[in-house]
Write a structure and sequence with these properties.
Length: 139
C-alpha cells in the first residue's frame, strides 16, 4: 500500500518578527503567532523488505528519508532523517474521528513541537509526473 502524507509542523515557539507599514515609516514589531511549516511526502513498502514501510518527505528544511514507519488504525509514527544536515526528528500521531492525524515531533538537534497531517492511500500512478503519464498513454 502506498500513502501520500501532507501536513504542517509547528515549532515550539510563538514569537515572530514583522515589519509594519501602517504609517509612512516602517516599524519593526514583535508579535505572537503560530508559525507553521508545510511538509509532504510518500510512504510505501521497503523494496528490500516488503513487510516494512519506508518513505521520503520534503519541507522547508530539505529532503528527508522516513524510517521506522509504523501505521495502525489509530496511531502512526516515524523517524525523519534529513539528507543534508543529518538531523533526526521523531514523529508520533493519533488519528482523530475526522481522519486528521494529530501529534508531536521531537529531535535532539531541532527541539520539539506539534504536527498534524493527512494520510491518503494512493496508487503508484499518483507519484508519476502527469506529463510522463500523458506520453505513456499515447503509446
Amino acid at each position: 500500500m502506498l500513502y501520500a502524507i501532507q501536513g504542517f509542523f509547528f515549532p515550539n515557539h510563538d514569537m515572530g518578527i514583522g515589519v509594519s507599514y501602517a504609517t509612512r515609516e516602517a516599524h519593526v514589531m514583535v508579535f505572537t503567532a503560530m508559525v507553521r511549516n508545510i511538509f509532504a511526502g510518500a510512504i510505501g513498502p521497503d523494496p528490500d523488505d516488503e513487510t516494512e514501510l519506508v518513505g521520503f518527505m520534503t519541507d522547508l528544511y530539505g529532503q528527508s528519508e522516513l524510517v521506522n514507519v509504523k501505521i495502525s488504525e489509530e496511531q502512526m509514527s516515524f523517524t525523519k532523517l534529513y539528507f543534508k544536515h543529518q538531523s533526526l526528528v521523531n514523529y508520533s500521531f493519533n488519528k482523530q474521528a475526522s481522519g486528521l492525524w494529530v501529534g508531536e515531533w521531537t529531535g535532539p538537534k531541532v527541539g520539539a513541537g506539534l504536527a498534524q497531517c493527512l494520510l491518503t492511500k494512493v496508487s503508484r500512478d499518483f507519484f508519476i509526473n502527469p506529463l510522463i503519464s500523458k506520453i505513456i498513454s499515447k503509446r
